[in-house]
Write a structure and sequence with these properties.
Length: 431
Amino acid sequence: MAKLLTAGDVPFSSARLSSVAVIGMGYVGLPTALGLHANGISVLGIDHDPQRLEAIRNQNVDLIGPDRERLATALGASGFELTTDVARLAEADAVMVCVPTPVDSRLLPDLGPLGDACDKLVRYARAGQTFILTSTSFIGTTATMLVEPLTDRGLTVGSDVFVASSPERIDPGNVRHTQQETPRVLGGVTPRCTDMAARVIEALSPSAHRVRSPEVAEMTKLYENTFRAVNIALANEFADICADLTLDPMEVIDAASTKPYGFMPFHPGPGVGGHCIPCDPHYLLWQLSETRTGAPLVRQAMNAIAERPRRVVERVQGVLSDNGKGMAGSRILVVGVSYKPGVRDVRSSPALEIIELLTRRGAKVGYYDPLIQRVALADGTVLESIVEPAGSDWDAALLHTVQPDHDYAWVHQCPMTVDATYRFAPSPASC
């Protein structure tokens, strides 16, 4: 790793970037570390969880094909090290904070992981380093959690140390829009901060779109994911409208997509899961509530997204009723529980809430997901995936997530099916 610098060693802007510490080795941090290492930069991956680091060493992690290959290469090469010792971040030229920013059960920001990571960064920071916050959070996070405490430590931002925001744009499981092909937004506290941070970002991305401040970069990320949330809520609403009018919503979307301008297709589904869309807009709404600024469209969209699992359960109950059965005692198989196809991730997955709601209404619920061996529900119940499902063993199948490259022909043996994906072909029923 790079030698320690003192304030007397600055100017540092002309020095070659040789080492980066990445705090948080999850779905963002690990691909980030691998991208940097693939570009000849020594990487120190830091995570508080030794089990996560051991899983990485054993290559037992969820990565797209190219990143899986990079991991195998990195583990057998020099310049790629994993540790739980956060104090070692002082060895690196730059530090990237890549920790999660979830919401709690009340949909309020949970700033614990980010606050802890930033506190430790500030504690071990030294002159000459560049710090980049990639986690999605409220406007002013970079200033509040990095700039102010670094200044309180006696470090001058813009000359002693360099601070910027460059929110991640990683889409887990998506091989069409990789990190190496996706531009990043970058806003430094000062122009020199932006220049210093660009050395890191341009090693990961084809380009860094520079903005005037960290606050602009932070708002850009919130706007991106709020845009998606609002349009997904609209797609779900149109799906319900189409059902009432006995129309196929996917046919309508496909037809509208032929317009070469003014339309972008979003697709309905059983709800929204993962680390971004069900969480990020709530950071904005939380901050706006402090300033008494209204955002009725955003708030309504997030309420509709939160209600979507209940709507799916009501549709299942309606299909059962149409076939002369009640929910109580019915055997229902939820097909797929990850929050999106192709990932081993159930964070905020609508499937978990759907299973709980079906169970509360008296159904006997099981699930099948070839990528998820077991899930834990909010009440502590642990379910294991059916190993070899047979459609005839169940009264109804609810299609939630269809994993790629797996055979689902057996689903057609189910007496009743509800397709909450809208894409299972041939589609037996739509939700």
